[in-house]
Structures are given as structure tokens and as C-alpha cells.
Design goal:
The chain is of the alpha+beta class. Helices cover 34% and strands 23% of the residues. It has three domains: 236 residues, FAD/NAD(P)-binding domain (3-Layer(bba) Sandwich); 114 residues, D-Amino Acid Oxidase, Chain A, domain 2; 53 residues, no CATH class. The longest helix has 18 residues. The N and C termini lie far apart (61 Å). The structure holds flavin-adenine dinucleotide (FAD). Flavin-adenine dinucleotide binds next to helix 1, strand 2 and helix 7.
Length: 439
């Protein structure tokens, strides 16, 4: 079968390579030509390329089963499996430490060596259709025909976007981060989870993602509407803010780590779900189907789980022409609920940061249910599969009455040690005026 994959990001390369390994004749088209001869890779149009990424275990699991050579290339390039001891149950791998660029470079170089997979540089202008069936795509004004077209063109693509998404909302959060590397001999800073650290305050959050080989990312998450926190995007202001937050000060101490990028802002972050267009000969996968707020690091796991489900349907003999129907039903059941979950928790987080009191007259969000486990550890049993994404968000529903009782008793979560949002604003404005004065 002739397959045309639109987009050679992580999703497009995985689906393209896996189909090529099944003997199909696959061409994957991307406007990005890949790394240049000197090794640099601008990755225009994929703004998250250099941003903080954490990789859930689903990513390695799908790669090992569906494209083992790429997994080997990724770990060969330094990706570190995060292995934890589970009391009474041995060890468990809970994800991989790696920069996103390291993952994508490993996939790209493996894809270039995969027989049956052709990587082509070009702009996809639109789809070719005949009598309600998609028969290919127009690339740089040239028609290319195929038996199956896979849209893996990501979150900001304009291919095949003739209908509005079924679910959509700006998450209301802005992601401001910077990358660093530990100096030789320096140990990582304080960690409260194997990936790094996560701390919440009364109007912002800070995260550290430890990557491979001492690389790490430091991240502030703030409400987009909070103009007073906007100067964080200046390097000098970001540095001062890091010094003021105990969880970040040790990590970013110039005697222990050096910045490897300027401060980056994560663009307009949206929670989006697009159901399949139910056109014969076409399926959409990855961010082309769903995007969620990045703070939970779900994107690539969701994308690779979709590819896994698609391949399983094909291996079970589904007709490629009408694959979209069972695959669309799978996405509606297993992908859509995560987008709904993010819309609810982000809306609640932004309201909370703007001072709204917890409303106990409505249902509690999954975030609120999980937080209540600090006061009632029985909730942990329900929260674990939710955090691991081994069950859908509804797995927390039985714990809702437990969490509600916790909040009705008057308990509220405490904030991590560090500046309140107002204190952080004072630090930021002091640093911004010094930076202005020095300019
Ligand atoms: C700030 C940020 C942080 C994130 N952090 C995490 C994280 O910690 N963990 C995690 O798992 N996920 C994270 N994600 C999500 C993750 O990056 C995405 O899920 C992932 O990129 C999806 O891969 P994809 O291949 O589907 O799409 P993309 O990576 O967007 O690739 C799509 C490809 O299609 C190409 N393309 C688009 N249109 C055309 C066209 N017309 N012609 C030719 N080519 C085209 C693009 O050039 C691109 O190469 C984050 C996202 C953001 C924005």
C-alpha cells in the first residue's frame, strides 16, 4: 500500500517507520528539511522543540514495541530511563529523561535509515479528494497520490482544518522557561519526583525538568492574564526570580549550572480535541488530533498511544480505506477525556490564582481530588492510575466523596516555601528596573 504521511514530527516519523517496517511504501513530507550540515536545527513552526519536555513511560514502551531501532538510538544519544523501586514489586520505569531535541534527532536519524520510508521536504498545500475519498495531497503544488493519507501535521497546521475543533480553549496559562546544564561535578538540585521538582504558589507554579547528561529546564507557569509577571521573559529578570524561589535557587546557582538558552515563552497554549473527519482514506494522529497543557507532559505519550492503537487496528486487519471509523471511535473514547480533563483543571487553576474560593457546590476537578490525598491518603489508590495515565480521568470519581469531605472539613493545600505571587512581583519589578537602568 502507498502511504503519505503529512508531517515528520515525532508522530509522523513513528507512524511512517512502523508502516514501512510492515512492508508499505511510505513517504513522509515535512516543510522542515531536518538538521543542517553543521548539526543545528531551527525547527521553524514547532515552537516547543527547545522547550522543557518530560517523557512518560508510554513513549519508551510504544517505541520499544513499534520501532525498537529508534528507541536504541534515543538511549544511545543519552536518554535516561527513570527507574524507581516499588515496595514489594521490584522496579518500574516511569519515563525517560531527555531533551525533546534529543528524542527528535534520534527519531529523524533512524527514519533516514529505515527501508521503505522516504523523507521528503515540501509544503503540504492541501488534500486531494475524489468522490468523498481522500486520494493524496498536494505538495508544493504537485499532486501526490496514496492509498492512505495520515495527517500528522501537529498543533499549528492548517492542513485539513476546514471544521472547527470539537473541543477548544486557550488554557489561560503561559509557560516561561530556560534551559541549563550542570557544571562538571555539580549534583542536581532539590527533587521531589524522579523527573525534577514541582511547586505551587498562590498565583504561579515552578517546575524543574531534569533531562539527560545534566541538562535541565526551569519553568515558571503563570496565568496569561497576569501582566505583572510578564517581565519574567527577560533573562536578567528570570535569573533574579530563580534566586528568590528556594526550589530554583540551588539549581540555577551560577557556581553549579550555566544557562544554555535565552528565556523562551511557550506561545499560545491550547487544549484542543479534533474528532476524525470520517473521510475514507484519511486518518489524523498526534497533535493534529489533540493538544493539552504541557505542564502534565502528556503530549507525546498521547500521540504515541494513538499510533499504537492505529497500528493495532491495521494489524487486526482493518481496511485502510475505512480505518478512520474504528480509529475515530478509539480517539473519542481514549483521547477526548484527557482534553476535557485539562480544560476543567486549567479553568479551575486560573480562577484559583485569581483569588476565587473553592466552589463545593459543583463537581471537584481531578486536580482538587488528587490534592486532597495530602489529607486523606486513601485517595492515592485512585490517583495513581490517573497520574500514570493507565486509566481514564473517571477513575478518580469514586474518590470524589473522600476529597469533598476533606474540603468540607476546611482543609486547603499549603503552598511550597517561597515568595507569594505579590512578593515575586516585587522581585520581578526590582530586577526589571535594574535591567532597564543598565540597558
Ligand atoms: C511548550 C510545550 C511543552 C511541551 N511539553 C511536553 C512534555 O513535557 N511532554 C510531552 O510528552 N509533550 C509535551 N508537549 C507536547 C509535544 O511537544 C507534542 O505532543 C508533540 O510535538 C506532538 O508531535 P507531532 O508529531 O504530533 O506534532 P509536531 O511535533 O508539531 O510535528 C508536526 C510536523 O508537521 C509539519 N507540518 C505542519 N504543517 C505542515 C505543512 N503544511 N506542510 C509540511 N509540513 C507541515 C511541521 O513542520 C512538523 O514537523 C509540549 C508542547 C508544548 C507546546
Amino acid at each position: 500500500m502507498k502511504v503519505l504521511v503529512l508531517g515528520s514530527g515525532p508522530t509522523g516519523m513513528l507512524v511512517g517507520a512502523a508502516l514501512a517496517e510492515r512492508g508499505h511504501d511510505v513517504t513522509s513530507v515535512d516543510r522542515d528539511p531536518g538538521p543542517s550540515a553543521d548539526g543545528t536545527w531551527r525547527r521553524r513552526g514547532v515552537m516547543q522543540f527547545e522547550h522543557a519536555h518530560g517523557f512518560r513511560p508510554q513513549v519508551a514502551d510504544v517505541l520499544q514495541r513499534r520501532w525498537a531501532a529508534a528507541y536504541d538510538a534515543w538511549t544511545g544519544a543519552g536518554a535516561e530511563p527513570m527507574v524507581v523501586e516499588v515496595p514489594g514489586a521490584g522496579t518500574r520505569t516511569i519515563g525517560n529523561r531527555s531533551r525533546r531535541s534529543v528524542l527528535e534527532r534520534a527519531l529523524r536519524s533512524t527514519a533516514s535509515d529505515t527501508p521503505g520510508l522516504t523523507l521528503r521536504t515540501g509544503h503540504v498545500d492541501g488534500l486531494l479528494a475524489d468522490g468523498g475519498r481522500v486520494t493524496g495531497a498536494v505538495v508544493d503544488k504537485v499532486p501526490l497520490t496514496a492509498d492512505l493519507v495520515v495527517d500528522a501535521s501537529g498543533r499549528s497546521s492548517r492542513i485539513d482544518r476546514t471544521t472547527d475543533p470539537e473541543l477548544e480553549g486557550l488554557c489561560g496559562l503561559t509557560y516561561v522557561d530556560r534551559t541549563y546544564q550542570l557544571l562538571p561535578g555539580a549534583e542536581p538540585g532539590p527533587m521531589d519526583n524522579p523527573l525534577g521538582s514541582f511547586n505551587s504558589y498562590d498565583g504561579y507554579q515552578v517546575l524543574v525538568f531534569l533531562h539527560e547528561a545534566g541538562h535541565f529546564s526551569v519553568l515558571f507557569v503563570c496565568p496569561t492574564a497576569d501582566d505583572a509577571l510578564k517581565p519574567l521573559r527577560l533573562d536578567a529578570v528570570f535569573d533574579q526570580a530563580c534566586r528568590a524561589v528556594p526550589a530554583l535557587a540551588v539549581w540555577t546557582d551560577p557556581d553549579r549550572a550555566r544557562p544554555t538558552s535565552p528565556v523562551m515563552v511557550g506561545g499560545a497554549l491550547r487544549n484542543v480535541y479534533r474528532s476524525q473527519r470520517r473521510l475514507a482514506g484519511l486518518v489524523s494522529v498526534g497533535d493534529a488530533v489533540a493538544t493539552t497543557t504541557p505542564t502534565r507532559g502528556r503530549g507525546v505519550a498521547m500521540a504515541f498511544s494513538q499510533v499504537d492503537a492505529l497500528l493495532e487496528l491495521m494489524d487486526d486487519g482493518a481496511d485502510p480505506g475505512s480505518l478512520v471509523h474504528p480509529f475515530g471511535a478509539w480517539c473519542d473514547e481514549f483521547v477526548r477525556p484527557w482534553v476535557e480533563d485539562h480544560i476543567a483543571i486549567d479553568t479551575d487553576a486560573v480562577a484559583r490564582w485569581q483569588g476565587a474560593a473553592l466552589d463545593l457546590t459543583g463537581p471537584l476537578t481531578t486536580e482538587r481530588i488528587c490534592e486532597a490525598a495530602q489529607a486523606d491518603p486513601r485517595i492515592n489508590e485512585y490517583a495513581e492510575p490517573y497520574w500514570a495515565m493507565t486509566a481514564l480521568p473517571t477513575c478518580l470519581q469514586p474518590a470524589e466523596p473522600l476529597a469533598r469531605a476533606v474540603y468540607e472539613s476546611g482543609w486547603r493545600p499549603s503552598y511550597a516555601p517561597g515568595p507569594s505571587r505579590d512578593q515575586l512581583v516585587t522581585v520581578i519589578h526590582g530586577a526589571a528596573s535594574t535591567a532597564d537602568g543598565g540597558a
